[in-house]
Amino acid sequence: MTWAPIPPAQRLRGRHALLTGAAGGMGLAVAQAYLQQGARCSVADLGAHATPELVALMAQHPDALHYLRSDVTQAAQIDALIGAAAARFGPVSTLFNNAAIFDMAPLLESDEAMYDRIFAVNVRGAFFVMQKVLAHMLRHGVR
Question: Minimal CA–CA distance to 18: which of 33, 47, 39, 38?
């Protein structure tokens, strides 16, 4: 038997990627790369509507890409996100946990509310998205 590498265009064929923080920037770029490699992508962000760039990408991949609104600071919304993503494309098999905020202010101008919001999204949200997606993957036998 000879070994042959999987062509880049096929590496993620049959995979369902869930991407948080993916309405633009790095998340959107990763979604584009995953789509090029054959994945179906559920992209999530806090915005009520998809960005124009994401809408254009969805038009190019109507059967492989969809947008879900989700707030990763809310456990119930994370559960709903995973459920809606799985209902559309089957069990999630790949996670790009990218949701983050960067409310920057000089140290002496920072307050507890700003700190709590950054921590809630960047640390707590990332942790619970990872935990809940892993539990979902294990329930569905995803490898």
Answer: 39
